[in-house]
Amino acid sequence: MRAAFLTAFGGPDLIEIGELPDPVPGPGEVLVRVRAAGVGPWDLAVAAGAFGPQGGFPLVLGADVAGEVVGLGPDVNAPVIGTPVMAYRGFSGAWAELQAVPVTALAPLPAGLDPVRAAAL
Question: pTM of the entire structure?
Answer without folding.
Answer: 0.90
